[in-house]
Amino acid sequence: MTENIQNKNQNEQKLKSLIDRLEHTRSLTREEWAFLIRERTPGAAGYLFERARESRIRHYGHAIYIRGLIEFTNYCKNDCYYCGIRRSNPNARRYRLSKEDILSCCKEGYELGFRTFVLQGGEDAYFTDERLAEIVSEIRAGWPDCAITLSVGERSRESYQKLFDAGADRYLLRHETYDPEHYARLHPPKLSARHRQACLWDLKEIGYQTGTGFMVGSPYQTPENLADDMLFLAELDPQMVGIGPFIPHHETPFSQYPAGTAELTLYMLGLIRLLLPKVLLPATTALGTISPDGREQGILAGANVVMPNLSPAGVREKYLLYDNKLCTGDEAAESLNSLKERMKAIGYRITACRGDSLNIRS
Ligand code: 5AD
To answer: What is the pTM of this model?
Structure first.
């Protein structure tokens, strides 16, 4: 054997033993995380996915939870350098759904079998606490057996509390990247990693099932940044984690940066499954956008959630965070049957239950 092949084998052995240790102790150092990510090989990834699938099946069987995503406003006061609905994109065609529109999305979604509604939007000042709380309480009253998830960015603790009291159960707020310096390269000075993270701790303390996450392959991201993201996940212990590849949008400052890869995104999904075995982990739209079988691959890497789009057809192509975003075909809630078939083909089944975290108040 040449020295080269020997080194390669040693490297792979080390990766596999770190993966085993991650599974058994759920604790690695920053250096170990960075090594696992930087030195990854296809062989180690295959092994990781096997371990991750087994862990997911142990806790959740072959069930896949569905969430109906309602993108209810694309107005946003923020100016994140990566995002297509940033304030300074003058070409984004802005829209906001009325309360009646949102309630009819829920009605349609319920009939299709959804038991979780995710209200996602930009940071739109029109949706004051009063307006949003009214929408939440009407959904709560109309569909008492459903979970309500909010994903509307950074708000005050009082605001989060009011929305929780109105009936919201869950909240998604990606931390985007843990490292303050990397965060500052992706966001304008007004936004900070520290404030983002403070919001997440508030949400958790209030009692929301909380979701966080990050983009994979965002500009300037290093393996050490991803290592910090994993350490942050270990500390926060969220009930949900959403990750997806960065995909450039042509009308943003990052239009010329390369997209993140499906390969690294899948690898990170596997690592997250082993770190947080009970986490609710979606195979996201962004993953489906960069790879035609991204969703299936995501499930096979350890994901257990999909979030089809319930927004009215007329606004879907306006909620463009990145270029070529999927919003028809199997991304659309109406195509649930074809999504079911695709999941069945890889041995998994979509379930209509609420799919609460097994990790509430852990
Ligand atoms: N590529 C991939 N994901 C993006 N998001 C925003 N812009 C992009 C992009 N260009 C993600 C962010 C945000 C979530 C709603 O969408 O992580 O939290």
So the answer is: 0.96
